Amino acid sequence: MNDLPPEALTAYFINRDDQRAADVASVLDSLTARERGVLHDAAVMGYVQGLQRERSEGVPKDSQIMALVIDACLTFHDLYPTVNAGPPPRPNSTEWVVESRWNDGQWHRWSGLYDTAEEARERFVSEVNEQPPTTKHAFRLIRATTTYTVEGLYDPHNEETPS
Asked: How far is CA 70 from its chain centroid?
């Protein structure tokens, strides 16, 4: 049996719950609005589909689940607007940069922009390893993803006027 007193075990479980909640919040905070919307639509519809399934049928393959969820989201387009909106009008762009925390406690760009994670990681590792022993700085590797969202559109070939 476990020799931990019940209070310590309870504290452990509370701490783990808090850590999981913080991890979930961190992932959600890192998502773009579109990613968050797609995740929401698919997760909710997946949950609903799971509740409607007969358990004796077994579990379908991932590709079948994906098709089922997307089909349901398309069927109920008013409830799942992100999936129905289609792809964003411009692809995301991704850049990489190394930042360092300065004495003022703020993070500042330490390097130029890199197009690949490999180049940026090399610079990151180099900066961390080549610091003088008397002056150690915190560094972080940043992936900057730019998403373009169309807020207004005018098409002269469409008779509708912008609102």
From this structure: 19
Instruction: Count the neighbouring beta carbons within 10 Å of the beta carbon of residue 123.
Output: 19
> How far is residue 155's CA from residue 162's CA, in Å, rounded to a whole number?
9
Crossing angle for the helix pair 62-75 and 33-52, to the nearest 10 degrees: 100
SS3 162: coil
3-state secondary structure of 114: strand
Which residue in 26, 31, 19, 66 sits closest to 46, CA to CA?
Answer: 66
Identity of residue 27: V
The dihedrals phi and psi of 94, each to the nearest 5 degrees, come to: -125, 130
Q: Where are the beta strands (DSSP E) in the chain?
A: 93-101, 107-109, 138-146
| Cβ-Cβ contacts under 8 Å for 76 (sequence gap 6 or more) | 45
pLDDT tens for residues 56-112?
Answer: 777 777 777 777 777 877 788 788 787 777 666 666 678 888 988 888 889 998 888
Q: Residue 70: which residues within 8 A CB-CB, separation 6 or more?
A: 42, 83
